[in-house]
Amino acid sequence: MKKGVIAAIIIIVLLAIPTTLAVTSGELFPEEVKPYKIGVVTELESANDPYIMQFLLGVSYVRQTEDVYLMVISDADDARMSLDALCNIYECDMIITPGNNLNSYIMEAARGHPNVQFVTIDGGFTKEELLKNMADIQFRSEESSYIAGYIAGKMTKTNVIGFIGGTDTPPIDRFYYGFKAGIDAAARETGKKIRVIRETIGTYNDMELGQDAATKMYTENNCDILFAAAGTSGIGAITAATILEKYIIGVDMDQNYLSPKYTIFSVIKDLPLVSQEVMLAYADKETYGGEIVSKGCGDSSVDVVGYISAVPEDIREDAEVLKASIAAGKITVPYDKETYEALG
After folding, report:
1. Residue 27, C-beta contacts closer than 8 angstroms, at least 6 positions apart
2. Residues near 305 by beta carbon (within 8 Å), at least 6 away in sequence
3. Fewer CB atoms < 10 Å away: N or C end of the chain?
4. What whole-number distance in Å separates Cα of residue 148 and Cα of residue 258?
5. What angle do the packed helices 231-244 and 207-219 form, to 10 degrees?
6. What distance in Å separates the CA atoms of residue 106 and residue 110, rounded to the nearest whole number?
7. In the Cβ-directed half-sphere of 216, how many Cα atoms lie within 13 Å?
8. What is the pLDDT of residues 136-171, one digit of tens each?
9. Is 127 helix (H, G, I), strand (E, B) or coil?
10. Do residues 9 and 73 lie in contact, with contact meaning Cβ atoms separated by under 8 Å?
11. How far apart, in whole angstroms, are the C-alpha atoms of residue 304 and residue 291?
């Protein structure tokens, strides 16, 4: 963990004054209201990551509600120091963090502060790993990735499709195996033999590496469509697609603005809404303690958006049918190697 790369944010949510009033000496006095404090921890070097940007958008929604205040700690040396400050100095009731880079620190802090609620988003924890004061909000990104793979499989001309992941972690496996399964479905329908090339670059924060990896896939491996689930590194892949005039799929948010002609659509998570709902739920005394909370097509938390004209209308219509089938549980979408191989 690099020093100087952690931002710790405190959101103080002042709960509404209760309607019950105490009568003292013939006068009405509101009962004491204790502010509910929510700490947000993320890596500063990920500030341009579309995933982090979407998460912080949800934070900003909470910040804009009435009686919500924000403080930024900018000089924390590392995650452990930030979490210690949030727990012991600012006495946060809840701490939330996006992604899985800080999992070990979150687990350590949760063990040491059993009265603080800890929430990770896409932490990739199993239910057995979670302590009673922890919860992990997990997006079923394999579902939207399946739709993306199906579209890519229908559109490919070279029959070679690329996937770039930031790291080899459960959340990235969700993207990859869902994507690959969707490509398989398209291949069965069309009779194509489609090769899928996967590369992991080991970081979400290096646009140059992302661009190099994508360039190699396009030029050496003959990929004509690429999906990069790699954060800021993926922006480098979009740069390569634009230079080489190749198609690419955006991730986490609608990334068409980065390359309007070549970002054919984006696989998104509704991080702003979900993070907002989670923070306000805890402030309203709800908890998801010790649980994995799953979000997917069924509640519109994941989707495929931003189609450009290069995506044929009939394929878009097929994608909508697929989405409805997934939401209804009629299609089983794999999320890791084991569930993918189980499909045969």
Report:
1. none
2. 254, 265, 266, 268
3. C
4. 19
5. 40
6. 6
7. 13
8. 999 999 999 999 999 999 999 999 999 999 999 999
9. coil
10. yes
11. 27
